[in-house]
Design a protein that fits this description.
By secondary structure, this protein is mostly helical. Helices cover about 75% and strands about 0% of the residues. Keywords: Membrane, Transmembrane, Transmembrane helix.
Length: about 140
Amino acid sequence: MTTTITTPGTPAAPAAGAALLRKVLRIDSWSTAVFGVVMLAGSKPLSAPLGIPPTWSVPLGIAMLGGAAALALIAGYPRIPKGPATAVAVGNALSSVAMLLLAFSGLLPLTGLGTVFLVCGAVVVAVYAVVEFVGLRRYARAVEG
């Protein structure tokens, strides 16, 4: 058994920073895959209640499945590459903003439920972005220091 002892105020071990980042990337991957399947399988049935046309939900679902695969790949590296992990966090932050813009821009004929759906999605993606940035910072600090 290996035990790591740290004193208060010292950076966490690299493994702890990597573990947080890896965990959030994996959770993000799975939830992105589920979202992609829902958007694909539910493109027609959810169109009326949400107001998201299938011409939007099908390509979005396909893109989400590709994104989920990329997230799983990044999380699976023995040492998480900083560049791709940073791109994920930035991409999530931008996606959150894009969902809010779509929710309130009038670009899509959203219903009230559709607006709530996009706003909730934006909040979830923003939380992923924040936790990924925190994980990246802890991981970088531990590796450098």
